UniProtKB/TrEMBL annotation:
Pfam families: Trypsin_2 (PF13365). The lineage of its organism: Bacteria, Pseudomonadati, Pseudomonadota, Betaproteobacteria, Rhodocyclales. This is Peptidase S1 and S6 chymotrypsin/Hap. The keyword Signal applies. Keywords: Signal.
């Protein structure tokens, strides 16, 4: 009788050990699968990432980096942040808007672009390639698919051309979907831009737990499983509004939802 109870206890213990081992293995497999998804998706993403700036052959460096962009639409359109673009270019000195398409070397290929659309209130802009072959375009996600907690990644040039024209990828989650205009506890914390946003132009942005840098402005935020773009990194427009009352800006990153890029594309097609 005692031997039978002992065997039963041993069997129960073995089952619990096996169940625990299976649960651990399944939990461990989730990040592995997520990493595997990103590894498979990145070769589709990186050929569509470009550096945005101005080009003037007689200066050094000839290309001045201003931010990141990515190819959309028919392969001749580049999406980026509106603040990435200069107010004017010195055409009399042969300065032009340009992008650099990364290549196998550290320099990449310079291609001329023109500004075709801009939405200052959402800090988005579209550029058009001037002639030449189309580039591979990224797919844009539908407008209503993003949820808090979902995994994201973004690819761009976090510190510009300092280390060469090599796109860099960061990953994280959507930690919150939050209004760009946040009511302040004290009227002294308000500024004219925030007052306008609160009165007329409140819209929601994605708060990310991954760290982006100023050169990442204009980078595509995408689903690491599918490669579909869900937003556009913004490191100036959003942070200046949401964090204007902070003496030390946070390490939080923000992105403009892709639905606003859909609308801008609709205006130029």
């Amino acid at each position: 009788m005692n031997e039978g109870l002992s065997n039963t206890r041993r069997s129960g213990m073995r089952r619990r050990v096996l169940q625990s081992a299976c649960a651990f293995a399944m939990a461990a497999a989730v990040p592995v699968l997520a990493r595997a998804d990103l590894v498979g998706v990145l070769p589709q993403i990186k050929p569509s990432i470009v550096a945005v700036g101005t080009y003037q052959r007689t200066r050094s460096p000839a290309f001045q980096f201003r931010g990141t962009g990515f190819v959309v639409g028919d392969g001749h359109l580049i999406a980026t942040n509106a603040h990435v673009l200069p107010e004017t270019v010195a055409g009399e000195n042969m300065e032009t808007l340009a992008i650099v398409v990364p290549g196998k070397d550290q320099q990449g290929t310079v291609r001329q672009v023109s500004r075709v659309a801009s939405e200052r209130s959402r800090d988005l802009a579209l550029l058009r390639l001037e002639g030449g072959a189309a580039l591979p375009a990224l797919s844009l996600a539908s407008r209503e698919r993003v949820q808090e907690g979902q995994e994201i990644a973004f690819t761009g040039f976090p510190i510009g051309a300092v280390l060469g024209m090599t796109p860099v990828t960061h990953r994280g989650i959507v930690s919150a979907i939050t209004p760009i205009g946040i009511p302040q506890a004290n009227s002294r914390d308000l500024n004219p831009a925030l007052i306008r946003r609160l009165a007329n132009d409140v819209f929601r942005v994605y708060q990310l737990d991954a760290t982006a840098y100023p050169g990442n402005s204009g980078s595509p935020v995408f689903d690491p499983k599918t490669g579909e773009v869900i937003g556009v990194i913004n490191m100036v427009f959003v942070k200046s509004t949401k964090e204007s009352a902070l003496s030390d800006p946070s390490g939080i990153s923000y992105a403009i939802p892709v639905e606003y890029l859909h609308k801008l594309l609709g205006e130029v097609r």
